[in-house]
Amino acid sequence: MKSTLLLGTRKGLVVYRHQNGQWAMQDVHFPGVPVSIAYADERNGVWWACLDHGHWGVKLHRSADRGANWEEVTAPAYPEGAEIKPGEPAHTRYLWAMQQGGRRHPDRLWVGTEPGGLFRSDDGGREFQLVESLWNHPSRENNWFGGGRDHAGIHSVVVDPRDENHVYVGVSCAGVFESVDAGKTWAVRNKGLRADFLPDPEAEVGHDPHLLVASPANPDVMWQQNHCGIFRSVDGGRLWTDISEKDGPASFGFAIAVADDDPDQAWVAPAVSDMHRLAIDRSLCVCRTDDGGKSWKTLRHGLPQGHSFDIVYRHALACSGDGLAFGTTTGNLFFSADRGERWQVINNYLPMVHSVLFVE
Length: 360
What we know:
Strand content: 35-45%
Number of domains: 1
Helix content: under 10%
Shape: globular
Largest sheet: 4 strands, antiparallel
């Protein structure tokens, strides 16, 4: 298990360190400033903080020395003349996803934003360019829309480690898009998904994948926690299968994490459906499947039961080896050393947690 946790929270980037069998808060960066995503580039150890200043807009900072010093870089910006729809200028409202571009492209970074733009840097983040091919996709103007935010947003970027020009994005609301040529062209990958909120639930575009992830052990196995259930693909997103639990809690939610070493093992943090957005029966739980979604186990040991209003945002559940950690909207942080069987509290008094990430 990696020994550091980076938390993007409503009031700063919070760092925890695991030493002598215990987690302890190590530092807080950007205190008082919302951090939408805290990210670490595993290729070079650089930490990134995506900030949401509200009135002052989005900011992007990086640190090459684990937070001892931070440097502001120019955040991804839409080119002059870009429009969400005719007459509505596009500007970066939120930085929602960050992903490194692979070891064969050591200076490549991807950033997903609201209002639905994907940006790429090939110089280590000094400059970002809008991926025009996706922005100009024929489906975007009329079939992409906001899911809980004003406009569509790219919250997930998945890079295939076997071929780093092979990239997927998850868009709320639009669905999954795949590129095999580093973003020059894109194919829609929503077959098998269901969008109950649309007039046509099987529409090609307009789905709401809350989070899209791929198995590190087998990148062809992909998972998504979707607005309409939990879906899995074993063929790189060409066909999705609903694996939601029929009579149990594993169905609606935002976060999903996949085991490092097993493409059939994954965890979700379920919640009451989109009408309420709170813990089921006011009882916090995590659900795990060990067989690719054929069955689910509800894990509650050490989690609050009967008095919890917590939910877990899409980037706020993470795994590393046998370790799992998640943060909640009410500022609780939990950790399990045994793949979710038993949980312990790290902190009950954090700000709202937006993201959780294990790093070395």
